[in-house]
Every structure is written in structure tokens, then in C-alpha cells.
Specification:
Strand content: 15-25%
Structural class: alpha/beta
Largest sheet: 4 strands, mixed
Number of domains: 2
Number of helices: 10
Distance between the termini: 84 Å
Order of helices and strands: HEHEHEEHHHEHEHEEHH
Radius of gyration: 25 Å
Number of strands: 8
């Protein structure tokens, strides 16, 4: 059996290629949102005290951010330390640039610079206005088009599907802030809620009534 030995340059070249691929991935991840937090765990369930404190500060200042759980990817966890030349977590990035870890964020908070560096989350009312106008016909429901998670939502889906009108849905079970806020915003205490061009049409009973009266289709098409 003949043993073939590859020159060292081949192995070195392969390593360089892998490093280049990882750096490209890390660049994409740090730019994945205007403000990116690399942390242990998730904002809902931080898995270390430093990450928990960081999330609390960001929430306190109403800063809009996305996060990446470094426990979910060992390659990212180790690679980002070299990429950013920062050995610990959490790490906060704005527009792909490293701002720092918890101590730096605390300093920025104390000097009142944090609010000028990080993007603010829209106020709930502004967010709800954007959501209700996201599509010409918007249904806020429990579940989605593929799987309604309550009988009322299932019935309203069947009615809308029978009209042939295009519509989008929002699953209120996935966002407690929207679920509670929309009740006040629309002055309507239950779900599902149907909106046309940002205006509330009503819940299941109203939609049934409009369908029986032959008024639903013109409303959905914006003819009324």
C-alpha cells in the first residue's frame, strides 16, 4: 500500500478556508439585526447572571435587539471571541460593531450614552398600528392559517377562506404584549379580531353577521 503524503500547504489552505467561512458567518450574525446580543441562553431564559443583567438593562431602556444563544453553537461561541477580540459573554453589537460586554454597557448607561447608541423599540401603540396595517386584511387569532388553536379562530378562518380574499394572520399566542395591548388599542376584549386597512371590523359574531347579510365581501375588498 502506497502512502500519499499531502504537502503542509494543503492542510494550511483548508484551515484558512474554514476560518474564512466562519468569519463570514460571524459577520452575517453580527449584522443580523441593528442591535445583536450574543448571550448565554435567551432573553426569556438567560443562563448566566451577566446575560440576565444585560437583558434587564436593554429592556429597561426600551432597546430593540435580537439575540443569539452561544450555547446553541460551539463554533460561534469560540469563534466570536477571536473575531471580536473579546474573551467573554455577553457581547453586544450595534450595526455589526462590538460595543462591549456587561461592564461597558453599565458604563454607557451611567454616562447616559446607551440611549444614543442603541436603537429604541417602537412604542406599543406604534407597533400595533403597523401590525394592523401590515396587510389590507389582517386577522389576529390564536394559531395561524395552517393550525387554528381555538374554535372561534377556526370558524373565522373558514369564513375568510370561503371569500377567496387574500389575508394575513398574526398569532397572538406568540406575543403576550400584542395579545394584551391590542385589546386596549381596539377596545375589543376577545379574539379573533379582524382588521381591514387598519380598521377593526370585529370578532367572529360580527363577521358571521356581515357574511349572512352579504356585506362581508365588499368590506374585505374595501368597497364599503
Amino acid at each position: 500500500m502506497k502512502l500519499v503524503l499531502f504537502p503542509p500547504s494543503c492542510s494550511s489552505s483548508a484551515n484558512e478556508h474554514l476560518k474564512e467561512d466562519l468569519n463570514l458567518r460571524l459577520k452575517k450574525l453580527t449584522h443580523a439585526a441593528p442591535c445583536m446580543l450574543f448571550m448565554k441562553g435567551t432573553p426569556q431564559e438567560p443562563r448566566c447572571g451577566f446575560s440576565k443583567q444585560m437583558v434587564e438593562i436593554l429592556h429597561k431602556h426600551n432597546i430593540q435587539f435580537s439575540s443569539f444563544d452561544i450555547f446553541s453553537d460551539e463554533e460561534v461561541r469560540q469563534g466570536l471571541k477571536t473575531y471580536s477580540n473579546w474573551p467573554t459573554y455577553p457581547q453586544l453589537y450595534v450595526s455589526g460593531e462590538l460595543i462591549g460586554g456587561l461592564d461597558i454597557i453599565k458604563e454607557l448607561e451611567a454616562s447616559e450614552e446607551l440611549d444614543t447608541i442603541c436603537p429604541k423599540a417602537p412604542k406599543l401603540e406604534e407597533r400595533l398600528k403597523v401590525l394592523t396595517n401590515k396587510a389590507s386584511v389582517m386577522l389576529f387569532m390564536k394559531g395561524n392559517k395552517q393550525e387554528a388553536k381555538c374554535g372561534f379562530s377556526k370558524q373565522i378562518l373558514e369564513i375568510l377562506n370561503s371569500t377567496g380574499v387574500e389575508y394575513e394572520t398574526f398569532d397572538i399566542l406568540e406575543d403576550e404584549e400584542v395579545r394584551q395591548g391590542l385589546k386596549t388599542f381596539s377596545n375589543w376584549p376577545t379574539y379573533p379580531q379582524l382588521y381591514v386597512k387598519g380598521d377593526l371590523v370585529g370578532g367572529l359574531d360580527i363577521v358571521k353577521e356581515l357574511k349572512d347579510n352579504g356585506e362581508l365581501l365588499p368590506i374585505l375588498k374595501g368597497e364599503n
